[in-house]
Specification:
By secondary structure, this protein is α/β, with parallel strands linked by helices. Helix content is 41%, strand content 18%.
């Protein structure tokens, strides 16, 4: 049997793959290596596993139902970590159909294949953005009936949660949905705020801050998120949902200051009007995850940003050795 990780060459997915292989699991990784950001960065995330006999990689789209079914058959997939999705709030406003196809259609396809193959556990990566704008001190799973997603991306994640719940009941698939809160750390996507800001500071370019910098996010270190994923994978539920967050809201200005300190360089801050669709406040209530998954975060924002900047500096110093990818045969050369 093997664990399937969709989106396994991405930021969070590649760290999940690392954790599963380190404990001896057989892992099948699926990623379509789309051009939302440089596919070579995704390849570099997993290239250290390419010679591992317990690791199998397929450059495939999760919407290819027949291909997915074949992979389930060959590798006897019984557990799924479904991370594949189009990310990004602003891009989803510009391309809502892309997000509907990749996120909703792709998730329904994976659930359908999982039902056919009697999967024993299906862990779905949702997002705190599914809560929508909220005024509470913290976001609790108990208030999900009041969710009001404010972007196509958020709405797609909320829709997927509904499909996960339905398939858990009608398809008899144990499903756990995890709402991630602002994940950051090594291998972070270049469009994400910590990476983008660190790059701009390093280059001495303007850092655009939308709003006055007092917005607060619950920034969660990737290693803590991975531990939450593994906890959910090892403890199947008929259907349940958990917040995976640091449980400490950090002001944007504070986060930029931490990046400045670790980079040893001041940011050229330029304040601009806040765009539509972006939440101004997130704060995870993680009491449920503590109680039912035995999970809680371990990494402070100060420690996490220091680790991220160490990785950021190192990867910028290293020559970017490209790996050729043959898109016609879907195999590495």
């Amino acid at each position: 049997m093997a664990v399937l990780v969709t989106g396994g060459a991405g930021f969070i997915g590649s760290h999940v793959v690392d954790a599963l292989l380190s404990r001896g699991d057989n892992v099948v990784c699926i990623d379509n290596l789309n051009s939302y950001y440089d596919p070579l960065q995704k390849i570099r995330n997993i290239q250290h596993h390419l010679d591992n006999p317990k690791f199998n990689f397929f450059c495939r789209d999760i919407c290819e139902r027949q291909r997915m079914s074949e992979i389930f058959d060959v590798f006897d997939i019984k557990k799924v970590v479904h991370l594949a999705a189009r990310a990004g709030v602003r891009a989803s406003i510009e391309q809502p159909h892309v997000y509907t196809e990749a996120n909703v259609e792709g998730t329904v396809n994976m659930l359908e294949v999982a039902k056919k193959h009697f999967v024993k556990n299906f862990v779905f990566a949702s997002s705190s953005s599914a809560y929508g704008p909220r005024a509470e001190e913290s976001f609790s799973e108990e208030t999900i009936h009041n969710d009001r997603p404010a972007s196509p991306y958020a709405a797609s994640k909320k829709s997927c949660e509904h499909f996960c719940h339905m398939y858990s009941k009608l398809g008899n698939i144990p499903v756990t949905a995890l709402r991630f809160f602002s994940v950051y750390g090594p291998r972070g996507r270049p469009d994400m705020m910590p990476y983008k800001t660190a790059a701009l500071i390093s280059l001495g370019q303007d850092v655009h801050i939308y709003g006055d910098g007092t917005t607060k996010r619950d920034w969660t270190y990737v290693e803590d998120v991975v531990n939450g994923v593994i906890a959910a994978l090892d403890d199947p539920k008929d259907y349940d949902m958990f917040n995976i967050g640091n449980s400490h809201a950090v002001e944007l200005n504070t986060l930029i200051s931490l990046l400045e300190q670790n980079l040893g360089k001041q940011a050229k801050r330029v304040y601009l009007p806040a765009p539509a669709g972006e939440p101004s406040f997130t704060h995870a209530d993680i009491s449920k995850a503590k109680k039912h998954l035995g999970w809680e975060p371990k990494t402070s924002i100060e420690e996490g940003i220091a680790r991220f900047v160490d990785w950021f500096k190192q990867q910028r110093r290293q020559p970017q050795k490209g790996l050729e990818l043959d898109y016609q045969t879907w195999r590495f050369k």
